[in-house]
Queue: 2 jobs
Job 1
Amino acid sequence: MRTVSRRQALRLAAFSGALGYLGQMGFSQAQAQKLLKIIAWGGTYGDAMRSSWMEPFAAAAGIRSEIQLQSSSMETLASLRANRNRNDADLWLSAIAPTSLAQSDGLLSPIPVDQLKNASQLPAAVVNDTYVGIWSLPYGIIYNAKTVPFEITKWEDLTDSRLKGMVTAPYGANYNGMFIALLALLAGGDETNVDPGFALAKKMKPNFSIFTTSDSEQIRLLTSGEVDVVAFAPVANYFAARKAGSQFRFVCPKPFIPVSISNVAILKGANVEAATRFIDFAISKEPQQKIAQMLGCLPINTMSEVSPTMREAVPASTEFRFLQEGVMASQLSGWNDRWQREIQR
Amino acid sequence: MIARLVPYFLVAPALLLIAVLLTGLSSVLGWSFQSSAGDGAAGLVQYANLATNESYRHFFTYSLWLAAISTFVALLLGFPVAYYMEINASPSQRKWIFAGLLAMFLSDYVLKMFGLILILGRSGLVNRLAMWLGVTDAPFKLMYNEFGVLVGLVSGILPYMILSLNGVIARLDKRLHEAASVLGAPPWRIFLLITLPLCVPGILAGTMLSFLLSLNSFVTPMLLGGGRVDMIAVLIFDQAINLANLPLGSAAAGVLFLISGAVILLLNGLGDRYQKRFQR
């Protein structure tokens, strides 16, 4: 029988250990290639993404994905800036303003748009190598028809003195400053000149009682009777409020309503090939239709059908306005300070 | 040998935790010296921004004001309770008061604030009662303003104030009161010249704890302020999270840290001076 010296035994053990470690590393890397990490919102958004996109995509492409939760896309931007080069996620669901800021900070990878087979079914404005639109959200006014003494039909109704102390408005530059930009447009300004918007907001100021920081806070305040009017809300909040009572109305006020585009971007250091395949799947007709119905938003794919509930809340005749969110992004901080100083206090 | 190492093993986990926390804190402070885009060193630019921008200064002065008022109110409300608990209450009454304080400690802070909304909100208990009794036609504005935040702050710090005072009052030498009484001093004089001076260490400890808790408060202004009550923690959250401006948020956190340190030093200094004077 052949004997093995102590030195040989140690060498054998070290070799086996190294072999095992390398095998494990290879297995982990192969697994990682098949696992996409997506930074996205949780709650109803996460649930809708899993059943509309992630599970069908895993079944179709054999690539699993998981969500890394974010409470807001600006929070993720702060985290990406703080952990530059230490990010391990592939995709980021966000709004145009944070995506634009991330792009200028060099935190994103270019999207190979030519590899997106379904891109031609999307409006050209929402497909570029920085981001691809995934759904759109129209914003309007929600009010309690039982307690508001008149029918709200236009944005200027928010200045009506009969609404004194009954209205909640966004806190600071919440919703990426869209309310401030909207007021500017209504008063004759634009995204680069918001002075007229602030003048209009001052007329509304006596009616503002609370400033909210989130969708859930808006819904809670409205359904608990703390406020009667939400000055600026995504239509999804109306669907949530309706579950608490039929007295809530959603108005697409005249002359137009703003629409925000939620988008997806590929992060620096991502698995670009798998990420691109995921994006292509997410923007295709059926997954778009499904997620739009679940979230109460408009599908970005022009071939997808809009649900009857959504059509009832946002009639086809409604005029949409796409704000220049990229232009607004760099001014958010200044708007936020000014809004707090001149309107909230 | 092992017996000698045991104390080190016991303190090591806590020291490690403190080291991790300090590393995190120093990392935050490091960010405060960066430019707003986080792409390079910017010296004291963020601190200068905080000092020169009236809007940011307001967050600090207003927070200090609210913390001072809420601490004073908690002292006014807490002292009689702590005094009663130790001097007049029967053992069973003391147990009940203590159980109430314990319940305030154990309940979740966010839930406590929501509880206040249910009581003081527009459609809350107080307003419904006032309107039912015909006291008012329209609901009182008791929440989502400065008053609402003050109520929230006071309810949050009151148990800390009571327990800080309670410890000192429990150690009062009752023979001093009896002696003063025998010599003909009226109760108010006994309180002002004997009880109150002996309680100063407890008042200072309670004041320090309550003031710092109020000053650093985030949940209360967020839930009860309605976006109208500007406190420092809200500014930090707003800048670091909502606007992704980590450097300015970090600078605000750094200034809050310095203010808190200054308050601790000031009140400790006052306590030391008082004790020296008292011991003479």
Note: Chain B touches chain A through 30 residues (CB under 8 Å).
Job 2
Amino acid sequence: MQRNSRLKRELQMLSTEPPPGISCWQTEGQIDDLRAQIVGGENTPYEGGLFSLEIKIPERYPFEPPKMCFLTPIYHPNIDSTGRICLDALKLPPKGAWKPSLNISTVLTSIQLLMAEPNPEDPLMADISFEYKYNKQVYLEKAKRWTEKHAIQRNKGFEEAKENMAEDKLEKALPMCRKREAHNSEERQDDSKKACF
Amino acid sequence: MYIITKRKTTKAENNNVQQRIETVGLGLFPSTPPCFAMENSDGAKQGGSEQPDTQRRRQLDRLDREEAFYQFVNNLSEEDYRLMRDNNLLGTPGEITEEELLSRLQQIKDGPEQPNGSENRSEEIGGPESQEEGSNGDSLLDWLNTVRRTGNTTRSGHRGNQSWRAVSRTNPNSGDFRFSLEINVNRNISEQQARPEEGEQQEGEGEGEGEEPAGPVAEPETPMETAEVVEEPVVEELAVIVEPEPEPPAPQTPPLARPASPRDQAPPPPDPRAEEPPRRGQRRARSRSPEQRRTRARSERSRSPLSLDRPPPRSPEPLPEAVVEGSSRTRQHVVSRQSPAELDAQLGGAATAEPTAAPQEAEPPGGEGWSAARRPPTIMLDLQVRRVRPGEYRQRDSIASRTRSRSQTSNNTFMYESERGGFRRTFSRSERAGVRTYVSTIRIPIRRISDAGLSEATSMALQSMIRQIMTGFGELSYFMDSDSESSDSNRGPNPAPDHGEAFLNPAAAAAAASAAASAGAADGASLDGGEPRTEERGGEGRAPPTAAGREGRLGPRGPTGLEEPGSLPFLRLAHFFLLNDDEDDQPRGLTKEQIDNLSTRNFGENDALKTCSVCITEYAQGNKLRKLPCSHEYHVHCIDRWLSENSTCPICRRAVLVSSNRESVV
């Protein structure tokens, strides 16, 4: 099948030459269920954070765009509280801009760019968008706080875990973030270990 | 191959319905992949924990088959490739073995000699689905079966001040189906309608023949696709023409049209009052299975939703042009934005048509009590469905047909055309596109259901008709619903949207569902918006208490109101409406012909660009590439699939169609 052979190639490319600040891997045994992490860009309120995304590959990929959403809470005008991303490349034309010549890597890069450059004109979160436009300082602070709370702490936990490689310590290190977050982090760490090697 | 039975448990209900419906196609295009995917994912789940080896082996097998597939496609001649693609015989790379492909090719090549053969076969093959359908208890199907058996059926009924009369005729030999629906609105009168059954058989119709219009085509692979109803590309070829006016059916439906039209003209304007009680009795006697009745009743209930506040119909003014506009209006209806004037125009058109249109065939002279004196607004729907054989279809240029349909607009002719061949998805989308661009042309994906044979076709036709009504004759709902009291008090408000769908043709439901699903897939946001809306509406409609107006009458009979046949379509109407609305955002694809017009060539080692950006695979010697007007090239099978749903280059997003048209025109 086209999807699978293409996915294989994409994953290979992602592992051999991943875009800077981005990693992506396959969850266990599931070729259509991927995870990715994006490092918060410098000079953005997301700096220092590590943001996890879930990627679902539709059956008709690449004729349909991959479905991506953030697992890590992020304060962003174009990403809602459930992690959905408002990005044209994630939608089919005519509304969207997906095309088969895009791939997971390029879309992740687009998301990375979107994090650095929110698009308040096409907001998913009206409040945040408003803030971004008219009260940027507040937005920056909030986004930073969110990053620290959800993206950085977890990351520290991850580092610790890496050092100790002990499951229980890992547990302790885990911050009490959102339930979902805590839940996800475990498996993510496992995954990331894999990815790292 | 793999036999997949319902696996999509996680998906929405829609899918279930769709699954039931199933289609047979082995599409190069849309449907197959999902199937595969499902299987695959299943395998993956299991494999991860339990049988990695098995999984790996399977993947290896698949890879081999994939190779073989490409090999096979590369070696196909141009005609053979098209033939197979258009008939959905290519399947998915990796899914089908080369031998199977070969045998299919052989089959399809042999097919043309027996025109009907191919279609039937596929229908028959849909075995698993058929069963499911049966379970569905689709009364509409029952009804349709009856129609098939009788050849011609007439039904009439009235609700409150509306009376309707539906005549259907089938020509078993050709598989043509014709359905005309007439609705009269009498504000002052509420009378019973007589619904004479039509005894006459259509020309050359034999009951037995009716059953199987087309010859059976054996498609070995069908079972595996069963699971994926939604995605299935299989489409029956139907051309449905709805003509509000008496004129003979469009060119596409020559067989039916000729015979029918003369009769149509004869009948005077329908007036409900004429109907006599005895007729009813007749009707009853004739009444189909209980299920049918039930269905009707249900439909009635559901009808209430339609009773949105619509402007009252004005006096009919015969304005053919207006009618035409109406057809294009489809979308507006959906939004219920239609201006009263337009409505009038449409009504007028309909009224005009009415005199001629009134189906004479159905009503015995006495039976027909329509009094000319009354000139209530009448809406006449004439729907003709014709099966198009694959070969036949090919000959027609779809562009040409579109054009034709457009030209027919003046007659307020609606043409539904579905192609057999892979572009199922395209269908829903192009359908949308059709609504937008060619008002009168709508493409409908039609699925095969079981071996019902003709009934299948007819049901499809009905479905199309419904759609038609929705789009072109949205106003009808006004009439139908004008007396909300008519709804069934007995039934009580229950109906969930599903209900309606279920009772409708599974196919219809499937189509709708698939449309919705595809929309959803395409754009999550839109899905969110659209579906809820639909439901809301449905709920609304149903919510209104159904009073007794007509029910009172029916009361004695109980829930099984015979008069409902007409209501079925209307119920659907609402749904389709919404779905159509939803679909509008979908991308539009190219037609097969348009795709075929793009140049192809074989890959040579010296070419600069060596990778197909759709599959990210390097071209191999002898690969067939298609070159878009923007000079970008892809594997033929890769780009064709994309273009079946989209119209831009995957690399540069330039519109493929515009330039290709230019070229072809020159």
Note: Chain B touches chain A through 49 residues (CB under 8 Å).
